[in-house]
Every structure is written in C-alpha cells, then in structure tokens.
C-alpha cells in the first residue's frame, strides 16, 4: 500500500472531486473541498491523473457542511452534499463560464445559477439486485462501481416516487423474470407513476398478474417490461397514461425521456424563449432538434411554426398525436440527426434553431448550423465539455452569445444544464 501523503486541495474538478498536485501531476480527492489540507493515500488512476482517498483532515474548509442524506457519500447519485450552497452555486456557474471561454466566448453574459429545490426530481433509473436470500434491493449504484446502494431515503427525488419502492421491491421479490440483476425507470407523469422494468429473464404469466396486482394496489397506471436488448411491452395497465407539457397532453412511451424536474424544465423553457429574438425573420419558422416528446417544441409553438426532429419513432408519434389533438403548430419529423444532420438546404427556411442534444453533444450538426448562417441558435446542453467543443464552430463563424443561463437540474451532482442563445 502507498504511504500517506499530505495534500492541499486547490480547486474543485469537473467531476466534483477536490484536486491537488503531487509530483507535478493532478490528484483527485473525492469528498474534499478547495482549501483543505488532508492526509491521503493513492488508490488508483483516472485517465492520466491519480485518485487518492483522504484519511484525515489537517485543515477543513469553512464551506464544509453536514450532508443531509444517510447514503452520502456511498451512493453515486450525489457527490457534493458536503459543500455549502453559495460556493457550490458559484462553482457550477463557473463551469459554464469556462466552457464558453474554451469555445472562444470569453466575455459571455452568464446569468446566476438557477437553483432547483430538493425533492423534485421526477425521473429516476434504479438498479435492481436479487440477494441470495431472495429479497430484492432497489437503489442507485456506488460511484464508479456496479455495487448497489439500497435506497432508504433520497433528498433529490420526489417523495411520492421514493414511497413506491418498498411495494415494488416486495413484488419483485416474487418475480421469476428477475433472476439476479435488472433496472427500473420510473417517470412521475401527470397521470401518476409510469414504470419500465428491465429484467434478465422473461416474465411469466404469474409475474404479469403480480405486476397487475401491484398497479391496482398502489395506483400505477402502467407497468411496462423489456428484456435485454428488446423493445418495451405493456405488462400491466389499469388506467390512461398522460403527461402535460406546457399545458398540452402527451402520451409518452414507457421509459420516455423527461427533463429531470418540473422546476428545471420551467427554467429551461423560460431561458430558451427569452433567448430567441423578439421578432423572428421571414415566416418565423423554428427547428427543434433532438426534440424528444416535445418538451421544448410545444412551448416554442407560441413563437412560430415548429418543425421537430427526433430519431425515436415512439417519441415522434407521441408528439405528432399531441400536437394534432391540441392544435399546436408543431410538425414532428423522424430523422436521426447523428447520421443525417440538417445541412444548408434543410436550414434555409428556419429563422431560429433550438437543439437539445444528448450528453455527447452534436459537433457535426452545430458545425452545419454555423456554415448555414442560421440567424438565431439556442443550445440546451447537459454537458459543459460537449458545449465547449461544439460551439467553437459558432465562434469561428462570427456568432456571439446573447444570453447564457446555468440551471442546476441535477442537485448535488457535478452535472450542469445550460441554455445558451447565439446570434450572428
């Protein structure tokens, strides 16, 4: 085992770990804060850097606070519960400032962090694990491992979502379709909880009856199931499934992507609309790229005619049906933008483009937007590193940042949502 080192934490790293320097290289120190001096032991590597475990504090930061959750720091869902709100918020805002600076926008007008409250997250992806005695644990994984932390409480999720877990675990205990490992995506929709189970064996008829009994007893409109690599099918349904997006009723597919919280969603929509020009050019046509089920498309329709591009057929169908029934000016188009991004001729009729790409970003698509000279672009990002990489092409093409809003969608995690509006 390595000897103890005395290390001084000089800053917070992008993954939410304190960082120090030793032998000329960076050392990541989980659960430490800037300004702290610790005795630590090197325990591994992360990329080119080393990772150390603090075993004693010689100097503690005045910004250290007591974490509220009994699962911290074992649970990988949160890594920053030990940091006071003010420096935590400033660090998250600084992540957006730094990302835009790396793209070339060094003086971008970045707003203060929009905070989201505790206990408001409406979507969770849980791990399932059958124990040797037959019981089933439900929870999040330990950081960097596949080990499951059985959930007893959560200060991020909606309380109603957490309250479902004991009854779900009891039912899963008797399912033949769950042999060892699985997962459960739970979306809290306007109609109630919507569950997508993935298990390592097929469901039997008794399994389906047990799930139907659970749905009836607890009030779950729909429970869907999918095997490994298979599409979802409804295993039990006792009521209609619906979700309101900006006042329009949508019927999402099982496991559909939702914004993490209703307050976060509202903040993103407000920043997106505020970032658009007050008067759109031409006919006011707007493109929404990576549109999902229409979280952004539907409110955008108040500003102009929206063409929503999405690759998932279920999402396209849900949005098209919702727009048709609700009289919303959205035309949903199935298109895989990673394989077939929109280029010059596709973009000439759009006065503005909004995009909310996946975590890896959309460098090729953003480059084509820059080349086409789209007048206004609003980029909704969940990854500052991808945002920095993608928007270099916008800086090179002469765009400027009109507004940038960091949104703390993922409380106590290192992840950051941001809405950045660009104009030529």
Automatic annotation (TrEMBL):
Keywords recorded for this protein, A-Z: 4Fe-4S, Iron, Iron-sulfur, Metal-binding, Methyltransferase, S-adenosyl-L-methionine, Transferase
Residue positions binding S-adenosyl-L-methionine: 259, 290, 310, 356
PROSITE patterns: SAM_MT_RNA_M5U, TRAM
Species, as recorded: Paeniroseomonas aquatica
Keyword S-adenosyl-L-methionine attached: yes
PANTHER family to which the protein is assigned, alphabetical: 23S RRNA (URACIL(1939)-C(5))-METHYLTRANSFERASE RLMD (PTHR11061:SF49), RNA M5U METHYLTRANSFERASE (PTHR11061)
Catalytic center residues: 382 (nucleophile)
Gene Ontology molecular-function annotations: methyltransferase activity
Keyword field contains S-adenosyl-L-methionine: yes
Gene3D superfamilies for this protein: 2.40.50.1070, Nucleic acid-binding proteins (2.40.50.140), Vaccinia Virus protein VP39 (3.40.50.150)
Family matches, as Pfam families: TRAM, tRNA_U5-meth_tr
Domain TRAM: 1-56
GO terms (BP aspect): methylation
Taxonomic path: Bacteria, Pseudomonadati, Pseudomonadota, Alphaproteobacteria, Acetobacterales
Protein name: Class I SAM-dependent RNA methyltransferase
Residues in the signal sequence: none
Superkingdom of the organism of origin: Bacteria
UniProt family annotation: Belongs to the class I-like SAM-binding methyltransferase superfamily. RNA M5U methyltransferase family.
